[in-house]
Amino acid sequence: MLLSWTSAVVRSAEEPLLAAGVPLMERAAFALHGQVLRVLRARRGRVRGARVVVLVGSGNNGGDALHAGALLARRGVQVTAVTCAARAHAGGLAAARSAGARVVSLVAGGGDGGRGVPTTTVEAAAGAAAGADVVLDGLLGIGASGTGARGPAGALVEALRQTPRSPHGPVVVAVDVPSGIGVDDGTCGGAVLPADLTVTFGGAKPGLLLPPADACAGDVVVVDIGLDLAAARPAVARLAPEDVAALWPVPDRHSHKYARGVLGVVAGTPRYPGAAVLCAGAAVLAGVGMVRFVPDAPTGRVDPGDELPPHGDGGPLAAAVLAARPEVVVGQGRVQAWVLGPGVDPHDHARRRTLTDALDAAVSDGLPAVVDAGALDQLPPRVGPQVVLTPHAGELARLLRARGEPVERAQVEAEPLRHARRAHELTGATVLLKGPTTVVVGAGGAVYAQADGPAWLATAGSGDVLAGILGALLAGRSQEVADDPGLVAALAAAAALVHGRAAHLANPGGPVTASAVAEALPATVAAVLGANGGARAAVAERRGRR
Ligand SMILES: NC(=O)C1=CN([C@@H]2O[C@H](COP(=O)(O)OP(=O)(O)OC[C@H]3O[C@@H](n4cnc5c(N)ncnc54)[C@H](OP(=O)(O)O)[C@@H]3O)[C@@H](O)[C@H]2O)[C@@H](O)CC1
Ligand SMILES: Nc1ncnc2c1ncn2[C@@H]1O[C@H](COP(=O)(O)OP(=O)(O)O)[C@@H](O)[C@H]1O
Ligand SMILES: [K+]
């Protein structure tokens, strides 16, 4: 699991160490220079003679970068430090100079309190950076205010962004965070320099995990500088396969299909059966005990308010589901969790009635439920966190507008966490906001950000598969969810991980269909369980034999 902490939490973890004279900056710089050496070796074999341009802001982030530059210069790297503000970290500047680094400034008399640093232009600095092996971005760290670098630093970032990227261009290594991101909220509004690698100190920062800023972080390497963050509350978490293995319901010898969880599904319409097929099929393939697919009451044969027949013939929609997945059971019955709404057309009155009946039943029984697509508009004003909403950005904006918040899709995309959190506050539900990086907000302040799938996953029906996976998980862990509704957010994040990984597995590096993602689920779950669940399953198996 990758955990992240806000700037304020990191600062308060630093304080006692700094007061005790612990050389945090030296530790950070040493680790940073080690990462740059690794990049240089991978890129060109030799370190000596490599060119590194260090971008230096006014604060300690620039100090880290300058000290790392000094260490690199001592290894024979040609280091050019470009200071971008009226002041620069004095100790770092002195170290870089005495190690033989060249120092220039974008600000006349800048960087060095007017001690005669040669000035350069934004164009010249950008040109030097473009010709370097590595650009070390030490413009802004956790002390950045607002999003986007301003002033000369901002101008340089803009110029670097204009430089066309090529495979021969420099590797950009961000110091602590890519300069200019919203460190705590993941916003990415102004001038931000995207990195290939971010070397972050003490613990990751939320903006490295949260969309849209996470797209600027590249690979994230967390460096231990001795901060004690164990007792501090993380802001955002990202699950790894081993975390998902620990969450996944694995059967043992005593398991039977009902004990493993039965999932009720209301999805699709007779006109659009695809969502029903994909959602119910994904739940089966993710390993649920049983799927009950709920068809509509046969028109004209049942009075409003009557119970549905326990085993109606189900009509063409159920026939389509059964043709694809004969394992599915059609009809009403006891379930441990629900998936409601994928592909349900609100203009189909019979389907909408079935949906609202099931939604009412799920909410009044307190059962875990995935509320997706067509069901989002039917959500009661308040529900518990065992209900998971799974909107994409447009659907979340609509849900918020329906609750009096004037929000457009673009605003949700610019600040996914803020809006997902708002929807959680307003509805009480756990919210899984789909996108390139999926954000989950749940009970007790839980926040997850999962970036597991390829962009190929943005394909019709993909969300229906995700809903089925999550439904299977909720059905399988319904007992634990009843005891701890906070678990729902972790399960939602786990579903997003498996969904994304299944897309990679379905066709590595190429296009996928939603059906192919669903078909890849059994192998994906097996691979994820292999992270530590192989051992777990073996233990469960042994226990079962006793
Ligand atoms: N504490 C420690 O010992 C350790 C800290 N560590 C390192 O320190 C980093 C934090 O350092 P920090 O606090 O000095 O903040 P940092 O981000 O470098 O600069 C902030 C300055 O930039 C300016 N500025 C602000 N916003 C701006 C904008 N949008 N656009 C342009 N300029 C802007 C503003 O200056 P002003 O403009 O007001 O003069 C502000 O004062 C941290 O990320 C890590 O790398 C590690 O060494 C581990 C030990
Ligand atoms: N650029 C992207 N990269 C990776 N995953 C994406 C991207 N865009 C969307 N996704 C994922 O694809 C799925 C799309 O779901 P959704 O919008 O509900 O599609 P549909 O309604 O067609 O099923 C979500 O799980 C989302 O997280
Ligand atoms: K930085």
TrEMBL record:
Cite the YjeF C-terminal domain residue spans from the record: 240-528
Write out the entry's keywords from A to Z. Answer: ATP-binding, Isomerase, Lyase, Metal-binding, Multifunctional enzyme, NAD, NADP, Nucleotide-binding, Potassium
What is the catalytic activity of this protein? Answer: (6S)-NADHX + ADP = AMP + phosphate + NADH + H(+); (6R)-NADPHX = (6S)-NADPHX; (6S)-NADPHX + ADP = AMP + phosphate + NADPH + H(+); (6R)-NADHX = (6S)-NADHX
Which cofactors must be present for this protein to function?
Answer: Mg(2+); K(+)
> What terms describe the molecular function in GO for this protein?
ADP-dependent NAD(P)H-hydrate dehydratase activity; ATP binding; metal ion binding; NAD(P)HX epimerase activity
- Entry's EC annotation: 4.2.1.136, 5.1.99.6
Q: Does the keyword Translocase apply?
A: no
> Which Pfam families did the record assign?
Carb_kinase, YjeF_N
Q: Name one GO biological process term.
A: nicotinamide nucleotide metabolic process
Q: Where does (6S)-NADPHX bind?
A: 60-64, 176, 275, 343, 392, 464
User: Which CDD domains does this entry report, sorted A to Z?
Assistant: YXKO-related
How are cofactors bound according to the entry's free-text note? Binds 1 potassium ion per subunit.
Residues the record lists as binding AMP: 434-438, 463
Occurrences of domain YjeF N-terminal (ranges): 6-233
| Subunit (UniProt) | Homotetramer.
Q: What does this protein do?
A: Catalyzes the epimerization of the S- and R-forms of NAD(P)HX, a damaged form of NAD(P)H that is a result of enzymatic or heat-dependent hydration. This is a prerequisite for the S-specific NAD(P)H-hydrate dehydratase to allow the repair of both epimers of NAD(P)HX.
Q: What is the name of this protein?
A: Bifunctional NAD(P)H-hydrate repair enzyme
